[in-house]
Design goal:
With 242 residues, the chain is α+β, with helices and mostly antiparallel strands. Helix content is 43%, strand content 12%. β5 and β6 (171-172) form a beta hairpin. The relative contact order is 0.17. Mean pLDDT is 84; it is low at 1-7 and 164-168.
C-alpha cells in the first residue's frame, strides 16, 4: 500500500521546495505555507475517509466480521496490527480501496495544466488548458463496475467481468483516488496506512453497531466538485470483543 516510490516522490517534492527557498524563489513563509497545506490536505481528506470507512463497516456487519476473521487468522491474538503487517491483510486493504472507490474524497482530483498541445481520444487539448479528471465517475461508472452503488470489497479481490481498463497490467484507470504518475497525490503514503491501521484496530477490538433505534448510519454525501464528505455525523456503539 505504501511503496518506496511513493516515499521518494514526497522526498523529491520537499527537496524541490527547499531548493527553491535556497535559490531565493520562495521565502521561509512560503515554504511553511506549502508544507502546512500538504499536511492539512492529507489529514482532512483522510479524516473524511476514516468516517466513510467506519460508517460502511458498521452498515455491513458481514464485512466487519470478515475483516475481524482475517486479522485473527493472519495475525493471531498476539501480533499487533502495524504498518509493516498491513500487507498481509488483503481483505482489510480491499475494504479501504472500496471506501475510496465509492466515496472519493476529491471527486475531480487536483486540476492540472498541460504545457504543450496534446491529443486525447481524438480531441485536441490546447496548450495551457485546465485539465481535471472525474475520478468519481471512473470509480462509479456502471459500464466499468458491477453494481457500483454497492459497498462490496470483494470486487478488489477478483476481476470484475468484462472490464479491461489497465495499462501494461500496472495502472487501473477505473480507480484513481490519488491520481496517477509523478503528479499523483503524495498524501497516499499517509492516508492508506492510517486508514488500514485505524479500521483494523477498531474492528479487532470492538463490534461496531448503530446506536439503539437506528438500523443503519446515514451515508449521504455532502460537498462539491473538489471535496466530498459525509453529510451528517453519526453515533456508533462500540461493544468490546471478549
Amino acid at each position: 500500500m505504501d511503496t518506496p516510490g511513493d516515499r521518494n516522490k514526497l522526498r523529491c517534492a520537499i527537496d524541490h521546495i527547499l531548493e527553491a527557498e535556497k535559490n531565493g524563489e520562495l521565502t521561509a513563509e512560503n515554504v511553511i505555507y506549502i508544507v502546512e497545506n500538504i499536511n492539512v490536505a492529507a489529514i482532512e481528506t483522510t479524516l473524511w475517509s476514516i468516517e466513510w470507512a467506519l460508517a460502511e463497516v458498521v452498515n455491513h456487519p458481514a464485512v466487519q466480521s470478515k475483516v475481524r476473521a482475517e486479522i485473527n487468522d493472519v495475525l493471531g491474538d498476539d501480533e499487533p496490527i502495524t504498518e509493516s503487517s498491513i500487507h498481509k491483510l488483503t481483505y482489510l486493504q480491499a475494504v479501504i480501496k472500496e471506501t475510496l472507490r465509492l466515496h472519493s474524497p476529491i471527486p475531480l482530483l487536483v486540476p492540472h495544466m498541460n504545457l504543450e498541445e496534446a491529443k486525447l481520444g481524438g480531441y485536441t487539448i490546447p496548450k495551457g488548458s485546465k485539465v481535471v479528471v472525474n475520478a468519481w465517475w471512473l470509480a462509479n461508472n456502471p459500464a466499468l463496475w458491477e453494481n457500483p452503488e454497492e459497498f462490496r470489497p470483494e470486487r478488489f479481490l477478483e476481476k470484475e467481468s468484462g472490464v479491461d481498463a489497465t495499462v501494461a497490467g500496472k495502472v487501473d484507470f477505473r480507480f484513481l483516488p490519488f491520481g496517477v504518475g509523478r503528479r499523483s497525490c503524495p498524501g497516499i503514503i499517509l492516508a492508506l496506512p492510517i486508514l488500514a491501521l485505524i479500521v483494523g484496530k477498531l474492528v479487532r477490538s470492538f463490534e461496531m453497531v448503530p446506536p439503539p433505534g437506528v438500523e443503519k448510519l446515514d451515508v449521504s454525501e455532502k460537498g462539491g466538485q473538489f471535496s466530498l464528505h459525509i453529510a451528517k455525523h453519526s453515533v456508533v456503539a462500540f461493544h468490546p470483543i471478549s
